[in-house]
Amino acid sequence: MVPSAAGRREMSLDFEPVIGLEVHAQLLTRTKLFCGCATTPAEPNTNVCPVCLGLPGALPVTNRAAVELAIRAGLALGCSIRAVSRFARKNYFYPDLPKGYQISQYEEPICERGHLSIPSSAGGTTRIGITRIHIEEDAGKNVHGARGDDVSIVDLNRAGIPLIEIVSEPDLRSAADAAEYLRALRDVLMTIRVNDGNLEAGSFRCDANVSVRLRGTEAFGTRTEIKNVNSFRFVQRAIDYEIADQVAKISAGTSVRQWTKQWSESAGKTLEMREKGNADDYRYFPDPDLPPLHVAPATVEDARATLPVLPAERRARYVHELGLPPDAAAVLTEHPALADWFDLVIACGVDARRASNFVVNEMKRDVVYRGLDADIPLQPNALAELLAMVDAGTLTGKIAKDVYAKMVATGSRAADIVRDAGLSVVSDDAAIDAACRAVVDANPKQVDGYRKGKTALLGFFVGQVMKATQGRANPERVNATLKRLLEAEGTGT
User: Which of 134, 238, 328, 445 could be stapled to 263 by a disulfide with Cβ–Cβ 3.0 to 4.6 Å?
Assistant: First the structure.
């Protein structure tokens, strides 16, 4: 039985979790890893050939584009790139693996010894080591009850799709940090255009290795593996549950068994699948059909030269050079298409902080992501034109939101909408003075309260004037006029 939240807090004083993640990321190639079959979605068992079906006599040929993408990932994550790496056969028997083995890399992976720094839930920054990145092919997919019956079918379209597996060091100490690591890793892979970050489609998924140990000890506890989790929220919930479950078992004098598990969102717990195997169980050996993979130094340097600015560096620039709040910088860099678009807005010369506020609080809900692409409601110059009108005092912030909605609905320019609808800010001193006097005269009780020291009532008066002018009065002039009237001896002054 898993302990209550209070019980978990008490036990967390004695135990600490040790978490390592293995992320499988589909590489953005047009064809599979060892054959010419397409990687695009299709009817079941149509993107197949003798090679990915594992037919006798069919020979694999390595996809160069997949290798280049793996190198990009390794460089972006601070790895060293092996000059020579090898493919191996990982033997196991399952219906969606027609050859009876998976082609992967074992003792000599293409990338090693990297890292990724993340914001820690305990504060500050945590550096998570990356043990290795290796290339491997995906298996097929078992489809259960697709026809509304108890029949299961095997779809081999995915068999042979190129993946990289990114194996972290066991450096994570909380489920929250594990989820943050996955978000940061996904951001990097999308930014360098190696992976589309689509968790729902399974092109970015992870296995979580979880154990607990007495705080202050060095030896690892017995770990369990939670397989194929494809949601940041589910990963965090699954790890939290597994930590609590292991602590409860150990506290009750029961040993933790080395199991492979899956997360059941409906049940709210991890479920046992099978006993977890070790490397010996897979009987790795070098694939005799594939020669060693040689990577020339020039190939590595070409990849390094074409790496874009990574999310962490971009966030730092937004905070330190543009003066944006860290939370806003994080939102603007969570997808590369949005960050690229925002850079173009800033290049138009608008105030960066005003632009970030408008995008984060008003526009972002209308952005639709499609893999590495995004449907963003306005072109960068269109938003820059709208915000420039706010900077110039032509529009208030409230009216700018209404104009934005009309721009999205009609495709018209901000200036045309403002002209045709008569939405320009009222800056005429006489008109503003008249509106302010009317509000002051109508609210003598609040006037008396203001003059007795309740200066916060100024906001009430400003709100009433803006309401009376339909939000079009110049806010600065409204504030100045109201202060003059309220601080005078009488309302007739």
Answer: 238
